[in-house]
Target: Lipoprotein
Amino acid sequence: MRARAAGGTIAVIVAVACLVGCSAPDSPEEVVESLSLTGPWASDFQVAYANAKSDYERGVLEDGEVTSSEYEESKNHLRSCVGDAGYAITWDERGGFELGSKNGTYPDDFFERSDPVLQECESKWAGSILYLYEQARRNPKKTDESTLQVTCLRDAGLVDGTYTKDQWRRDNEKDTFPFDARSDAAMRCDLDPLGLWYSG
Model:
C-alpha cells in the first residue's frame, strides 16, 4: 500500500478497516477454522475476517467474496463517514483515493486532523473489503504475481523472451525495471495483468 501527498490533498490507498455489531472472535485461529471457505483467496478472507474490527466488515467477508455492490457500498459508507467530519474522498480507477477538505482550506495540521478520522472511518466501513475485492478482481485464481507480470510485459512488448520471473522479482524489489514503469502499457500490466477490467 502506498501513500502520497498531492498538492493540498492526501492521496491514500485503502487497505484496512472494520464493521459494526458482532462480538470479537476469541482468536484468529478459531475464526479461520469456523469459516471453512474454499477457493484461491480463502485464506486471505479468513485472516481478514479474524482481524476485522467491525461487524460490517465481518458480514461482507464471511462468505469469502466481495461483490461489486458490496465494494461500492463500502466506499459509499467511507465517503459518508469522512464527509460528516468535513472531508471529501475521491477514488482513482487505478487504485487509491484523494482525501481533501470540503471547504477547500488546508491548514498546516490538515494531515494530523484528517488521518485519525480516516483511520476511524476505515475501521468501521472498509477494513480489507476494498483490498480483497481489487486483488481478487485482477487475479481471480491468485496466480503467482511474477508469472502474471512477465507474461503481460512480454505480450506488451516491454521485455523479450529472455526476461525471467526472477529478474522481475529483483527489479520489482528495487524498482529498477528495464522499461518505463510509468508508461501506459506498464501501468496496465501492473493494474490489470490479465486484461479483465482496466480500460485506461
Observations:
- Confidence is low (pLDDT under 50) at residues 1-26.
- Residues 41-138 form one domain.
